[in-house]
Design a protein that fits this description.
Layout (H helix, E strand, L loop, with lengths): L1 H8 L12 E3 L2 E3 L7 H19 L7 H6 L13 E3 L8 E3 L5 E3 L5 E3 L2 H9 L5 H10 L6 H20 L4 H15 L1
Helix pairs in contact: 1-5, 2-6, 4-6, 6-7
Length: about 180
């Protein structure tokens, strides 16, 4: 499965985004096409989740500071627009009776491949051989260890917006941790 995901991620485009909007769970997910990943991630992923979280009662006074400083996470890394599953938690992957892996229920777009990998780790992750086979095929940049928290903040906020206060403290803690990385 790791090798097959790397093959999916090897399919590149010249822009970030998708030809239409879609949804992550029940949350609308905008996908306007951008030439710049930082702008796309700020405008199409984090800002909509922050705004929705605020409407749903979550106070995140540090959100603007993170949005203003996103470039700090990309000083030595420029992702290329890779085809993504978009919602790759373990519940959206499985194996046939013959043991062949498959993924389903995508909310695809072109973005940083690290976003898919990050979400595989959000709820405990996949087996270690998944990650090793992925890295043998398409190695991750060393900055992934920090950026995965940036990418999972999006999913944590989305879970707050879908399921409520159980994700509030985790979202606030992730935001504080990310801001400590850039100070």
């Amino acid at each position: 499965m790791g090798q097959q995901l790397a093959a999916l991620h090897a399919k590149a485009m010249h822009h970030y985004g998708w030809h239409r909007n879609n949804a992550i769970g029940a949350t609308p997910q905008p996908n306007s096409q951008y030439d710049n990943w930082i702008d796309f991630y700020r405008d199409q992923r984090l800002q909509p989740q922050f705004k929705l979280a605020q409407r749903n009662g979550l106070r995140l006074p540090q959100a603007e500071a993170l949005l203003e400083n996103l470039s700090a996470f990309f000083e030595t890394y420029t992702p290329r627009p890779s085809l993504l599953h978009g919602d790759l938690w373990s519940g959206n992957a499985g194996f046939t009776a013959k043991g062949e892996p498959f993924i389903f229920d995508p909310c695809s777009y072109y973005g940083d491949r690290e976003t898919d990998l990050a979400f595989t780790e959000f709820f405990g992750g996949y087996r270690s051989d998944f990650y090793s086979s992925y890295n043998e095929t398409l190695p991750l940049d060393s900055g992934y260890k920090t950026r995965k928290h940036l990418y999972n903040l999006y999913h944590c906020l989305n879970h707050f917006n879908l399921f409520g206060s159980g994700y509030a403290a985790q979202s606030q803690n992730m935001l504080a941790q990310l801001l400590s990385e850039i100070r």
